[in-house]
Amino acid sequence: MTASGEQWKDEAVSVVDYDPAWPGLFAAEAALLEAAIGQWITGGIHHVGSTAVPGLAAKPVIDILVGVDGLDVSRSCIDRVAPLHYVYAPYRTEEMHWFCKPSPSHRTHHLHIVPTGSQRFADELAFRDYLRAHDDRARAYAAVKQELARRHRHDREAYTEEKGAFVLETLVLAGRRP
């Protein structure tokens, strides 16, 4: 299923306190994804984003990163994850196949199918791992996100873009950028 038309209305940005149920929600989804697209997975299924960092406030959306050999060879995954209620949303198509679940207007999961050898794949894991290892940086990120959610409650794109500077600074600290 592909997002289009009326269905593609963003819900409001909301940052909530960490929920200890998030890792279990990821694990359940990872098992479903492994069964559906396991033959294409070359770099594992990873819980990324803020819900993957214990104690970190986050939008209550489970971000999942799946590593594949390439976007062309993994195009079949688009149809394979549709029965799991993932909606394909052509976003940054040169970097990934991106999906939301169950709909763009109410998201519980984001799925990023990304080439394992890409910068995006490595950066997603490095950012998560740095926040997991550095509580002070995770707390600073929570403050940034809460402020941006307040300012951009009805503009997800602005919320995401304005987090970019913090993410880049963190990738520098993690040794991923000069």
Structure characterization notes:
Strands 1-2-5-4-3 form a 5-stranded mixed sheet, sandwiched between helices. Mean pLDDT is 93; it is low at 1-8. The N and C termini lie far apart (40 Å). The protein contains 5 helices and 5 strands, in the order αββαβββααα. The relative contact order is 0.17. 40% of the residues lie in helices and 19% in strands. It has one domain: Beta Polymerase, domain 2 (2-Layer Sandwich), CATH 3.30.460. With 178 residues, the protein is of the alpha+beta class.
What does the secondary structure layout of this molecule look like, with pairings?
Layout: H1 22-37, E1 41-48, E2 62-68, H2 77-81, E3 87-88, E4 97-103, E5 106-115, H3 119-133, H4 135-151, H5 156-173
Parallel strand pairs: 2-5
Antiparallel strand pairs: 1-2, 3-4, 4-5
Helix pairs in contact: 3-4, 3-5, 4-5
Short description:
Helices cover 40% and strands 19% of the residues.
> Which oligomeric state applies?
single chain
What share of residues is helical? 25-40%
Query: Would you count the extended β strands for me?
Result: 5
As a percent range, the share of strand residues is 15-25%
- The separation of the N and C termini measures 40 Å
The biggest sheet, with number of strands, parallel, antiparallel or mixed sense and barrel status, is:
5 strands, mixed
Strand order of the largest sheet: 1-2-5-4-3
Let me know the average pLDDT: 93
Q: Please state the structural category.
A: alpha+beta
| Assigned CATH architecture | 2-Layer Sandwich
The sequence of SSEs as H and E is HEEHEEEHHH
Shape, per Cα inertia axes: globular
Total count of helical runs of at least 4 residues: 5
